Amino acid sequence: MKEEMFQEPAVLTGRKVERLRTLAGFSQAEFGQRLGGISKQAVSKLERSKKIGSEKIEKIANALGLSREAVLNFTEDKLVFFIENMHDQATGYAYNFQCTYNPLEKVVELYERLLQLERDKVQILKDQPDAK
After folding, report:
1. Which residues of 9-32 are buried (b: 16+ CB within 10 A; e: fewer)?
2. Dist. CA 72–CA 11, nearest whole Å
3. Helix (H, G, I), strand (E, B) or coil at 112
4. Domain 2-77 - what CATH class?
5. What angle do CA 61, 62, 68 make, to 5 degrees?
6. What gap in Å lies between CA 82 and CA 89, rounded to an integer?
7. Which of the given ranges, 24-28, 81-85, 126-130, has the highest pLDDT on average?
8. How far apart are CA 107 and CA 110, in angstroms?
9. CA of residue 34 relative to chain centroid, distance
10. Are 87 and 50 in contact (CB under 8 A)?
11. H or E segment and range at residue 3
12. Do 57 and 12 contact (CB within 8 A), yes or no?
């Protein structure tokens, strides 16, 4: 509770905007279009800003498809923490996934079926009378 009272208000800097834009996969030109058709040079100037005014924050959040709070509270540390934790939870070990069959047996089964199909084709060709 005390930490929240003394916490500095979130400030949106051009560096944060640049990082969010690149993480979202937008070029400066694409991002400029999403911001209302501003030029690539204007986006570059925005990304070099020390502090971005509150009137632009909403536009930036909408262009990125994020909430205003997500944009304001973005930090590299939170991103790294999120990625590290998602990676840990994305492994099969974390969810205790176990195969209920042997994959090698499935491969052998598939080859046996293919071999049988080839044998059937050969037999059909042998059974056909010569077409001369």
Report:
1. eeebebebbbbbbeeeebebeebb
2. 6
3. helix
4. mainly alpha
5. 35
6. 11
7. 24-28
8. 5
9. 20
10. no
11. helix 2-6
12. yes
State pLDDT tens for residues 98-125.
667 778 888 999 999 999 999 999 999 9
One DSSP character per residue, 20-71 reads HHHHHT--HHHHHHHTTS--HHHHHHHHT-SS--HHHHHHHHHHHT--HHHH
Structure tokens at 43: 């986006």
Number of residues assigned to the chain: 132
> Could you tell me how many helices (H) and strands (E) the chain has, helices first?
9, 0
Tokens of 127: 């059974």
Burial class (CB in 10 A: 0-12, 13-18, 19+), 99: exposed
Token pair for residue 93? 């070990």
Q: Residue 33's CB: how many other CB atoms inside 10 A?
A: 16
Is the pTM for the entire model greater than 0.70? no
State both tokens at 112: 């046996």
- Alpha carbons 43 and 35: distance in angstroms, whole number: 9
